[in-house]
Amino acid sequence: MKRSVISLLTPFALLISCNSHETHNSMPKSPALPPPPFEAPTNPETTEIDNFSEKDLLVGGYAPADIDDESAIKAKEMVIDAIYKKFPTRALVDKVEMQVQVVAGLNYKFRIEMSGPQATRDVFSGVVYRNLKDRFELTSLNQIQGK
């Protein structure tokens, strides 16, 4: 009986010893390589937004955004409506700049210039927050130049 148990266990012992044996290479393991450095585009014809994609967004930082995006249009309209309500004016919107910030949702930051002489032109800044449930809220509106 002892002999049959030993003969049955011998192949298992050999398998275990083979699996536990580690091979050692003479080459040390190399650490993970850092990502390549950022290189600015060399073509002056392309704009900043042309070279930017959603994968380039960084949490906490503002970045260029597509102002023709459906959500951006909705946010822009909220800011413009708030300007006309809080700062009644007959001037029209002349120029709109927008950036986006990734938070627990998105912040759309606008710089809006109204029409009129450059020296007395009204300029506003506004931020609209879009939460993860796709609800929009105007979080700030300030006049940064003008009356």
UniProtKB/TrEMBL annotation:
It comes from the Bacteria. It comes from Hirschia baltica (strain ATCC 49814 / DSM 5838 / IFAM 1418). Keywords: Signal. This is Cystatin domain-containing protein. Residues 1-22 form the signal peptide.
